[in-house]
Amino acid sequence: MAKIKKYTKKDGSKAYMFNLYLGTDPVTGKQRRTTRRGFRTIAEAKTALSRLELEVMENGLPTSSRKIMTFEEVYKIWLEQYKPTVKESTLYTQTSVIKTHILPYFGSLRVDKIDTAYCQKQVNRIFNTTKNYNNVFNLIRRILDYAKSMKQIRVNPMDDVVIPKRKRENGSVEKVLNFYTKDQLRTFLKLLKENESYQMYVIFRVLAFTGMRKGELSALKWSDVDFENGTISINKTVAIGSNGKLHIQTPKTNKSIRTISIDDTTLNILRSWKNELKKELFKQGENINHGDRLIFISKHRLYMLRNINPFLKKIIQKYNLPPIKPHGFRHTHASLLFESGASIKEVQDRLGHENIKTTMDIYTHVTQSAREKTAEKFANYIGF
What we know:
The chain is mainly alpha-helical. The protein has helices at 42-59, 71-82, 88-106, 116-129, 133-149, 182-195, 198-210, 214-218, 264-283, 305-319, 328-339, 344-351, 356-372, 374-382, and strands at residues 4-8, 14-24, 31-39, 225-226, 231-234, 237-240, 246-249, 258-261. The protein folds into 3 domains: 4-65; 71-160, Tyrosine recombinase, N-terminal domain (DNA polymerase, domain 1); 182-374, hpI Integrase, Chain A.
């Protein structure tokens, strides 16, 4: 406990002072002390000491006793504790988002100078310019929460920000699911089979008839396909590492590890592709027979979105097809499963959805489409 001492000032008058231990600075790890002097009476000194002790107890070190960091300095410390909690691909994605959308606007600011009004301005900007805006909002909030835990700020200015919601003209929140109908899928695959590379036809056939993610498909090896029992084991994915390069890692979630059945036609298409690949590799003096070889290959050994996305975009433009993204074939598979009578649980297990809400979003869309056709079905049945 701090002691109050009497001392003599330069003019010969008496005054009181104290030296108080404030604790360890969470940023520097150094012990902090403060000296206050110039009190005319011991009562004044006791009052000031009590107030300072209470402030330190409630709010941590006084501002004057610690270095207030910039947002970027807090981010760098936060990043070190965040790294071990996520996969390398997630780390790469999130740090890219922070460097692009957050640091240019927050990085140089002292965290105690960032207020709700400034955060609201940036939230509005991000909402109007960024597709995955909720993720950006969440990252800003998490970093400022970390600043709060370090006693750099007392409150998180993001707590009082109003988060916008994108709406349609009728006022409902916009939720877009990109997928093909059965007829659109048939047309798409027919065009690929008759006019494009056989490998790309097989890739999109497997995507549409298994519902797997493009990263999961890219990591498939021949040992994952059980031709005898008609199943595919999905237990890995291709992702972008922290160095920006592709690598194979464990799947997105534990639910993503699954073994699914495949129809006979798709199985035979895979057999045909294996024979085609065997001929091609034989010309190059390589052997396909060991199960460790990837099913879909490119010059860089890993066949992934860097090849699939541009190809799909080119095909859509070339044949004037309805717009769809590679992930849309996963939604297509789910949608057609529901239309064929599969249960919500069956679709969740087949697609490896960790959260049933994701499955329900697709189910809701499909059932809405079915409801819209109810009147038409009735009229066709009545016939007058």
